[in-house]
Amino acid sequence: MDKKLTLAALSALGQETRLDIFRLLVRAGPDGLAAGEIAEELGVLQNTLSANLSVLLRAGMVRNRREGRSIRYFADMDGMAGLLAYLMEDCCGGAPSRCNPAIEEVTGCCPSG
């Protein structure tokens, strides 16, 4: 992940509704949730949800898949792993390999499907 995408990801996750969406999708795991399910669960209007999902998509924090007339959303764990790797690449006194177990533990629980 580069600096520009990292800033986009941090900005996307730095807004309350978008952070709630991302955390809900993380909890949903590899099955993800349909847009309507997200709106219902969080009590968010459909147009507001759509705008927030677009920001998260552009930032690489979620991905989607069309299923007929519905769109299913998923937390993009590869995007989150990239964000964490970028943030931690200079950690541990210049020995980032020491941080790899922490990154793997955080991101390895729910592989992207």
Give me the secondary-structure topology.
Layout: H1 3-13, H2 16-28, E1 33-34, H3 35-42, H4 46-58, E2 62-67, E3 70-75, H5 77-88, H6 91-94, H7 100-107
Helix pairs in contact: 1-4, 1-5, 2-4, 5-7
Rg, alpha carbons = 15 Å
Second rung of CATH, namely the architecture = Orthogonal Bundle
Work out the helicity level.
55-70%
Count of strand segments: 3
Q: What's the order of the H and E elements?
A: HHEHHEEHHH
N- to C-terminal distance: 20 Å
Topology-level CATH name: Arc Repressor Mutant, subunit A
Largest sheet: 3 strands, antiparallel
Q: Main sheet: which strands, in order across? A: 1-3-2
- Strand-residue fraction? 5-15%
Q: Specify the CATH homologous superfamily.
A: Winged helix-like DNA-binding domain superfamily/Winged helix DNA-binding domain
Describe the protein's architecture and organization.
The protein has 113 residues and is of the alpha+beta class. It has seven helices and three strands; from the N terminus they run ααβααββααα. It has helices at residues 3-13, 16-28, 35-42, 46-58, 77-88, 91-94, 100-107; strands spanning 33-34, 62-67, 70-75. A three-stranded antiparallel beta sheet has the order 1-3-2. Strand 2 and strand 3 (70-75) form a beta hairpin. Helix 2 (16-28) crosses helix 4 and helix 5 (77-88) packs antiparallel against helix 7 (100-107). It is elongated, with a radius of gyration of 15 Å. The two termini are 20 Å apart.
